[in-house]
Amino acid sequence: MTLDPEEQAPVLKRATGEAARRRKTDRAWEWVARLMTHYPGDVSVLSPLYLNLVTLAPGEALFLPRASCTRTSRARPSRSWRTRTTFSAEG
User: Fold this and answer.
1) Is 8 exposed, middle or buried (0-12, 13-18, 19+ CB in 10 A)?
2) Cβ neighbours of 63 (radius 10 Å)
3) pTM (whole model) above 0.90
4) How far apart are CA 37 and CA 77, in angstroms?
5) pLDDT exceeding 90 applies to what percent of the chain?
């Protein structure tokens, strides 16, 4: 996520206030507040506001199709060495 440097400070300042106000009633804002403590000044702390937050109970599972979280356009995973997975855009 990118934002022009001159716009970052005011946006993060306002988000800090909103997070303090809403963190008790809204899980997304709770995550924003948590992330702000670890990554101050990073606009990516706002990502919980546009992501789909999912809470799983013990024993529950979530199915994600192969490489759905990291896949872009036609990128396909290919094995390089033994433990490292890389992605290539080749068909």
Assistant:
1) middle
2) 5
3) no
4) 34
5) 51
